[in-house]
Design goal:
Elements lengths: L6 E2 L3 H25 L13 H26 L7 H8 L1 H5 L14 H25 L12 H32 L3 H7 L1 E2 L1 H7 L1 H6 L4
This protein binds protoporphyrin IX containing FE.
Protoporphyrin IX containing FE binds next to helix 1, helix 5, helix 6 and helix 7.
């Protein structure tokens, strides 16, 4: 199935970490949506009912936070914004309409991917910081107890960050699947075709050995 000229894009550890983050985040989005309005509470039936969802949601949040921390440790050094990224951002309208000829070449990640990474890292902090007072209002590790005003403010932060993260995820999934065929393969099997790399990440492709 793999062509010898394929390029290794993600290690096994990177892929497992990404999918733990991805699947736990989707679980959190759906159960969070269920808690947000009584009319949506039926969604909890998909995961075993209301009580199960209520117990699992914060623990999945812990799993998501840990996977995000590992992802951060693995990828942060590759996500710095460089001159090529600033040029790419200036041409983002061309990228949006698939006008490839006017999009400056990207490295392993384009500037949009890098900004998505940093946004999710910040949102990850917002979720856990705002989630803990709702989960453990009596306090944890010597911090707290958290009173009504704090819990309610944190609930607002949690909701707003979820709307932001949910919208970003829709764009991320769209770009990683239907918009750019051949991309998902890298995150599933670890490698991409050289032609895909040349088209989407030409500077990275040039750095890899081979034609
Ligand atoms: C659940 C559905 C998801 C799908 C289908 C998906 C798909 C993908 C794919 C195909 C890539 C590789 C892109 C490339 O090779 O250039 C990728 C990369 C990445 N994913 Fe996901 N992902 C999902 C969820 C998530 C979630 C929930 C997060 C973080 C909270 C996340 C964070 C990232 C990051 C930081 C990268 C590297 C930078 C980038 O490509 O944007 N992904 N994802």
């Amino acid at each position: 199935m793999n062509d010898p000229s394929d390029l290794k894009r993600f290690t096994y550890a990177e892929r497992v970490t990404h999918w733990v983050a991805g699947l736990s985040f989707v679980f959190l989005l759906f159960t969070g949506l269920a808690f947000s309005h009584p009319r949506l509470f039926w969604i909890t039936n998909l995961v075993g009912g209301g009580s199960t969802a209520r117990v699992l949601h914060p623990w999945m949040g812990v799993l998501f936070t840990v996977s995000m921390a590992v992802m951060f440790a693995m990828w942060a050094k590759e996500m710095g914004i460089q001159d090529q990224d600033r040029a790419w951002l200036k041409a983002i309208k061309h990228y949006a309409v698939h006008d490839k000829d006017n999009v400056p070449p990207a490295g392993k990640y384009n500037a949009g991917q890098k900004l998505f990474f940093w946004s999710m890292a910040l949102l990850g902090i917002a979720y856990i910081v705002s989630g803990i007072p709702m989960w453990l209002p009596g306090g944890v590790l010597g911090v707290g107890p958290f009173y009504g005003g704090v819990v309610n403010s944190m609930r607002l932060v949690h909701y707003l960050s979820t709307v932001g993260g949910g919208l970003l995820l829709i764009v991320h999934v769209y770009l990683g699947t239907v918009a750019y065929p051949g991309t998902l393969r890298g995150m599933l099997h670890g490698s991409v075709s050289r032609a895909w790399a040349k088209l989407h990440h030409p500077l990275w492709q040039k750095d890899q050995s081979g034609p």
